[in-house]
Write a structure and sequence with these properties.
about 160 residues; alpha+beta; Translation Initiation Factor IF3; about 25% helix
Amino acid sequence: MGWALSCTLLGCGTIPEARYESFEFPNKNAFITAVKRPFQPLGWVKAKVNFQSFDPNREESALCKNYYNKAVRQLVQAALSKGADAVVDVKSVVFLEDGRQETYPTAECSDDGFEGQILLQGVAVKWKKEQKPQDTHNAHDAHGLENSSIIQTGLSTPDPVSAAR
């Protein structure tokens, strides 16, 4: 009976092996920095991933980056379910002890030694259709004049050197 009691108190079992699954960043649908393509914002999307951080086979920063990728994938799934095409302005969210929050464009995880957590937010967007370039024959210059009229009439500005002679 003493053996059973000591195993209960001291924990005779082994530490469970960390479960790990690798996640890739969804490059086609998620953007950390500003995008040049025109879009219509649809609203915020948020994600939270808890993960086992006690893993002797992996560095804490590698775990954080991996589960950051998982959270970004969740952002994209949430955005797609709202009818969006992508997520822009992806940021990690960190809550401070005084109640404030900060955002970062990098993977920032909290960790108590056994369990880690990452919180993300982003903006779900719908891509706007790209406009075709204007026809150069109907294009207007800064004064509202058609460029084609200058070409057709053969008007040109006088050469300052020849005008001075």
